[in-house]
Amino acid sequence: MSEREFVIPIGPQHPALKEPESFLFTVDGEVVVDVEPRIGYNHRGIEKAMESRNYIQNLYLTERVCGICSNAHQTAYTGAVEEVGGIEIPERAKYVRVFMQELERIHSHLLWLGVAAHEIGFDTMFYYVWRDREVVMDLLEEVSGNRCNYAMATVGGVRRDLPRDKYPKWHKMLDKLAERTNYYIKVASTEKTILERAVGVGYLGKEDMIRLSGSGPNARSSGVPCDIRKLTPYLIYDEIPFEQIVVDNGDVLGQVLVRTLEVVEAVKICKWVLDNIPEGEIAVKFNPLQRLPEGEAVYLVEAQRGELIHYTISDGRNMPYRHKIRAPTLGNIPSLVERLKGGYIADIPITIAGIDPCFSCTDRMAFYDEGKDKTWTWTEGELSRYRKEWYSR
Amino acid sequence: MSNPLTTLVAVLFFPGFSFILTYALWCQWVSRKAAARLQNRQGPLHTGWQGTLQPLADFIKLLVNEDITPAAADNPVFNYSPIAVFAIPLATFLIPIQSLTSLRGWEPIASFEGDLIIVLFLMSVVILAVFLGGWSSGNIFGAVGATRAALMMLAYEIPLSLVAVGPAILAGSLQISKIVDWQVTSVNAFLGAPNIQGLAVAAVLLIGVVIYLICLLAELELRPFDISEAETEIVHGWQVEYSGKKLALLNAGHDIKMVLAAALVTSLFLGGPAGPILPPFVWFILKTTFCVLVLTNMSVLFARFRIDQMVAGAWKYLVPLAVLQVMAVVALSGVI
Predict the structure, then answer these.
(1) Interface list for chain B against chain A, based on CB atoms closer than 8 Å
(2) What total number of domains does chain A contain?
(3) What is the value of ipTM here, to two decimals?
(4) pTM
């Protein structure tokens, strides 16, 4: 480190990060020279807890992995379990799941847009976006009864139907969302101070993005077409006419454009679902005591933040032998580090927020000795002994 | 200074410290409420009528809060700079408000030839206190914020001072109350016999007001120039280690600086307390509140600039424009 350089710690507590994650920035004046990310501050033991609960109880655990993409996690979980069990869900349930997934995408992307505006100090836009986001929150509440953690999917279908008499009202709400989002696209791409803070900030080209294997809107803003809904369609995404949004800006403006255009596209999907949803049952019966055959399954879902992977192994009981969740943010951290290098201190918050990070869903705990390159595990008893020793010091 | 008692009352009550503090808290409420309504929020609502007492409640609450001084920041510079940030604008405010008392036939307590220079100088000294306070706080964010505050001063200080000199050249005096008098007489003359020169002067001064307001946004650390305290980037920058009484003083100092800026705009460009029908006091309050509203409106319209963008923009556009404006003023002052 030269004499002009010094280290700024950002996180695990910092107003720009709503979740615990640490970044050590080596800066030269106002320019970032090097970044050292450190993940793993939050361990909730959800994967372990799932191994001792049955498949219905696990629905509520998976939903609580993340507050914002709760439905994406549930969709991926139920999809993986149904694949292991060979359960065929009714056609109408697939439409309802897609409807929920796209509503959640709208709410998440609008939330992100507000946060991004706040990070560049444009609080007025933040308040306006969040006001308009209330429309989709109301819609979600009307459909499921909740503003987050909708508890809509279940193994074998969905738990609530979409009542047909509400469709005209929902169409109107969706139209309003599309209209407001188009307005924000116009604001974000013409307002001078936003462009000053967004164009060229946190740039990462297509080649680098492929090399660092980013996913979701983060990768699509650098021109990599990686939408799981197009690549390996699940549910009924192969029947729905929709565009995969890919721009090649590679900077924060590209991320704004990808997400806002995806909101418009998601509104179209929701309207298409409401127009084309078939009549019929919404779920097949699934008993909590029902055993699944031995086997394993991987289910990919395009969550709002990128590629969400749920991997489940069944050993023939009514609970999973192992369930592994890979949240999209984990795949986006290498590209985030590359985006941060060479930028200004002032651009750190918006660049980190640019990948729409969800660190708490990403974090797992593992023991690793860097010097000896060794990993190990601890039992509950060993952990509690360690705790007692630590606090009696 | 005929009667010491009158002078004491003037310093302590009206137009002295009590009035200034009350008025600063009022302007904070106006600014917060206006910003909230522009951003589709409610703003202060519960303390007093429509939350008018909220700034006072915040001030008192901070005064009784625990005052934590980190070990690394335990030095006189850190401890005394909030007092400077609070006291300097408070003392400076007496000067532009003199124009108000002079119209009512009261004895001015601090009005003399060259007081405009003193005001501009003292307003710059505040930034020095800010820099020292942030730098001595022993915090990396405080140091970055302090450097940014100093860098910003290099950018906006020159156009700010240049433009403030414009009305002084036209009035032929560096005394704020005389500048106000000049505005009143020349506006009356213009209304009596409208001419093209008067319009030209007004147009040139309008450019001056715009430059002045932009520089004031930077001076007051309002958006888009709240770079030195950017909450999401450097956690309130130079203020990061201040708490309790010191933070209360810093906030009050900021409010006083805001009304001081509004009073300067009013005195230099808007004719001070002069106006028809209503008494001068009401005109002064109306005009300064209007300036506060304009500043608030400008500050909610934009995203925050980066420090390099701000400095480059100021030297590319504001400084040349301010120089041109002063040249135009000099040329015009020969005409009228």
Answers:
(1) 38-41, 140-141, 144, 223-224, 226-227, 230-235, 300-309
(2) 1
(3) 0.81
(4) 0.85
